[in-house]
Amino acid sequence: MPVVDSGRLRDFTRRVFLAIGAPQDKAAFVATRLVHANLTGHASHGVLRINQYVKAARSGDLVPGADPAVAFEGPAHALVTGNRGFGQVCAAFAVDTALRKAGETGLALVGCRDLYHVGRLGDYTAMAAEKGFLALAFCNGGGPNVAPFGGRERIFGTNPLACSVPGRDLEIDFASASIAEGKLNVARNKSATVGPGLIQDKRGLPTADPNDFYDGGSILPMGGHKGSALALFLEIMGGVFTGARCSVFPGYKEGNGVSFLALKPDLFRPKADFGADMDLLCGRVAGAAKAEGAAHVLLPGEIERENLKTFGASGVELDERSHEIIGEVGASLGVFFDQP
Question: CA 54 to CA 27: how far, in whole Å?
Answer without folding.
Answer: 12
